[in-house]
Specification:
By secondary structure, the protein is α/β, with parallel strands linked by helices. The chain is built from ten helices and nine strands.
Length: about 300
Amino acid sequence: MSSLPTTSPDTAAGSNATPDGSQVWFVTGASRGFGLEIAREALARGHRVVATARRSAGIADLLPEAGANLLALDVDVTDEAQVQQAADAAIERFGRIDVVVNNAGRGLLGAVEEASDTAVRAAFDVNVFGALNVQRAILPQLRKQRSGHILNISSVAGVVGIPGWGLYNATKFAMEGFTEAMSHELAPLGIKVTLIEPGYFRTDFLDASSLDTEAHVIDDYASTAGATRTHAAGVNHAQPGDPVKGARAIADVTEIAEPPLRLVLGSDAYGFTLAKLETQVAELHTWRKVSESTDHDDQAAGVR
């Protein structure tokens, strides 16, 4: 598990909790994978969980010890009205919402040119507009409470452009952008925001049920996007990341006073992210003179 700062009574969740110290979690995509493990971990810590999925019928069977602490709801995050109904049901049942986990997602594998308009729009509908639907439905409650924590499940693909994942990259880059801006907007209101950036974790994400793989293949991309397609098929269910440990790290980050804006999960994600940042900083320095040369002359002369 990722190392996190040690908590104390003074730095624990504090106002992001009910009087007995428990929280109410709202988790999308909770029927399997990361979402299910996050729901399980939250319940194990004594919290109450609203677990949503397009088909939620089996969630209670997967979490048999939850009892009245679990509310499972059918929610398609692309349906704004349905998301609002779920938020209202959560507040009616538990009185508040403390932690929001935007985990529902859809993968898209293929070169940028290979990806169809239909497939790209479907990925954006879930990964971007679906997350925005959830936030719009729940933020009024968090603002009223002046507390809460939004956890947006991004990806290392939200940091590093990867051949074959280009349009999935685009959805997660979009999430990174609006989440970072939102963190500044919500901080004065007592609401915390964290982007979770996992690498490859051993879930069903690479199965056809979660991943669209473009049937249209262009031979010129065989060594780039094609190689990624082959790698994804080979690593499926043999990914290095442990979703149980990942869920534990995600739950831990909600229990500290000053959580990070970004939490990278997995040694693969850490390596890719560090390499990207080092390359970006080096390139920034290399081209600094060109960057600064485009200022107006009065700026270069020190006029403000």
